[in-house]
């Protein structure tokens, strides 16, 4: 990882992190979240699905409850206690007005200055195609930031009690193949590993190795490995 990226702007006190699935934010981004909450910043999570299609051999109706519980534990491990599940169907999330409206509602509810969202690009990197859910949620979130600040888009949200919120200063895209900024997470990798380790059933369904070993390898890979700068990288808009 490059040590030349500028730091993420710090002119914010509230962040809203949006992801398609439980576990998406735990793949490294949680290290930045841990640093932020320890510094007294407020971070909320929105999960578009309950991840019910993500566990081979476990029917969606059973997996949903497991994954929601694991995500709540993961969030708590990095100081996040405000999280919502929107209930869109895992694996077939549609980028459209319904999703934009739901996300605009959550932005108006949380009133963040920083919105964090997982990668909306077609790839994670060379040879790594991004999932349809990730692409849909990422793109819809970028659009919803504008929607949240415009009184004439989704006026029904005002009727629900959610006034426009034009106060988002920055959108930070995690795991982007085109990073522009970085957050120094020196000292916070253990918190991120603990957070991802709470995804016990999910990780066990993916790989027979011990969950703690998987979590450590993933967080090291996404925050800089054993050597070099320890950082989480973002593509920042605004």
From TrEMBL:
Q: Where is the signal peptide?
A: none
The record's listing under InterPro entries reads:
GlcNAc_PI_deacetylase-related (IPR003737), LmbE-like_dom_sf (IPR024078)
- Is the Nuclease keyword given for this protein? no
Q: Which SUPFAM superfamilies match?
A: LmbE-like
Pfam hit, one: PIG-L
List keywords of the entry alphabetically: Zinc
Q: Which residues cross the membrane?
A: none
Top-rank taxon of the source lineage equals: Bacteria
A GO BP annotation: glycoside metabolic process
Quote one Gene Ontology molecular function term: hydrolase activity, acting on carbon-nitrogen (but not peptide) bonds, in linear amides
Listed PANTHER family = LMBE FAMILY PROTEIN, N-ACETYLGLUCOSAMINYL-PHOSPHATIDYLINOSITOL DE-N-ACETYLASE-RELATED
Name of the protein this chain belongs to: LmbE family N-acetylglucosaminyl deacetylase
Organism for this UniProt entry: Actinomycetospora cinnamomea
């Amino acid at each position: 990882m490059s040590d030349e990226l500028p730091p993420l702007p710090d002119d914010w006190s509230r962040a809203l992190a949006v992801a398609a699935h439980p576990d998406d934010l735990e793949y490294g981004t949680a290290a930045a979240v841990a640093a932020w909450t320890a510094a007294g910043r407020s971070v909320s999570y929105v999960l578009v699905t309950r991840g019910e299609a993500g566990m081979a051999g476990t029917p969606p109706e059973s997996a949903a409850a497991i994954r929601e519980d694991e995500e709540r534990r993961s969030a708590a491990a990095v100081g996040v206690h405000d999280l919502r599940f929107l209930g869109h169907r895992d694996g077939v999330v549609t980028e459209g007005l319904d999703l934009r409206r739901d996300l605009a509602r959550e932005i108006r509810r949380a009133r963040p200055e920083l919105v964090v969202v997982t990668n909306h690009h077609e790839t994670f990197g060379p040879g790594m195609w991004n999932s349809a859910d990730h692409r849909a949620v990422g793109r819809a979130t970028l659009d919803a930031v504008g929607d949240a600040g415009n009184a004439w888009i989704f006026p029904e949200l005002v009727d629900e009690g959610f006034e426009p919120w034009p106060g988002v200063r920055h959108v930070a895209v995690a795991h982007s193949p085109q990073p522009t900024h970085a957050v120094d997470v020196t000292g916070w990798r253990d918190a991120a590993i603990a957070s991802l380790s709470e995804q016990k059933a999910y990780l066990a369904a993916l790989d027979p190795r011990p969950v703690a070993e998987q979590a450590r390898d993933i967080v090291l890979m996404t925050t800089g490995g054993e050597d070099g700068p320890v950082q989480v990288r973002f593509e920042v808009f605004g």
